Amino acid sequence: MYKRILLPLLFRFDAETIHHVVTSLLKFAFSIPGVSWLSRKLYVVDAPRLARTVFGLTFPNPVGMAAGFDKNAELVSELGDLGFGFVEIGTVTPRPQPGNPRPRLFRLKADRGLINRMGFNNKGVGPASGRLHQFMQKRNRQNAQTPVLIGGNIGKNKDTANENALSDYLICFRELFDVVDYFVVNVSSPNTPGLRDLQEKEPLTRLLSALQQENQQHAAPKPILLKIAPDLTDGQLDDIIAIVAETRIAGVIATNTTISRADLTTDAAVVEQMGAGGVSGYPLRKRSTEVIRYLHDRSGGAFPIIGVGGIFSAEDALEKLQAGASLVQVYTSFIYEGPALAKRINQELLKAPGLTVQPLA
Predict the structure, then answer these.
(1) Which UniProt keywords apply (predicted)?
(2) Does the annotation list 120 as a binding residue?
(3) What predicted TM-score, i.e. pTM, was given to this entire model?
(4) Active site residue 189
(5) How far apart are CA 195 and CA 192, in angstroms?
């Protein structure tokens, strides 16, 4: 029903406008008594065999919602009730910022993809932290054995110079430390001018080393992951492997959106009219898998990888897991496939021997 009736209706409206409408409706619907319980009955696959232990955390299932969908930590509980094992909020920045001018989100319907140049639009780390404090209190009261886990995706404000970027990342890290289960350092978005320069070996090593130094001040440090672009060369990926080893961060998320426009089905003139931004969704599937496989094989499986990019089905998720990912995330496919996506993937993963029977260390 979703793809036949609801999706064509939703696609009649501007992409960003309908995103806000849908998320507002989700929030309203789940405020009605009984809806959360019903949603969990419909969408949550409660199977111990799906649980996976990765970088010291136990995830109830390997399918997560990627950063970007819930920038301000407003739908964490609702997404958990739709079957996701973990939710990554953000990207958040120290101060609120409006992002880039609209329109900035475009559908590539023929390609099952999106182009976005949002530009880290968010309400700032403070409000997100406040909402997550409430969520964590609720989660602790429920005392679930395998609760929905929360990742905090952190970035810098657009007007913060790269030489001062560490200060922004530290502000977000400190503000979120008590309310997230792991951190993601985002230096790979193509929509903040100059941000990807921080992926170069020297500045990235300094940034991650400083965050790890801050992290080690705590009795129980949190896993820190690095989210990388799919557009890196093999040499740059080799640098990433070396940086992970040197800084001893927990792992890598592969990958962010791509600036490439290669092999799109959508008419080139239409794509050009949409303008700059990162491509997500199915066009990213092949390249993100290549990056995962390269990192895993080249490093000898030295660190966990969360695979994201073009996962529309259980087969796509298995492709990432077989390439070396420990967990997977979706976002664009959730828009195209609907609320039962996590359920469908998890149900099929239960049928895949060797991938879900034993949790990963």
Answers:
(1) Cell membrane, Flavoprotein, FMN, Membrane, Oxidoreductase, Pyrimidine biosynthesis
(2) yes
(3) 0.96
(4) yes
(5) 6
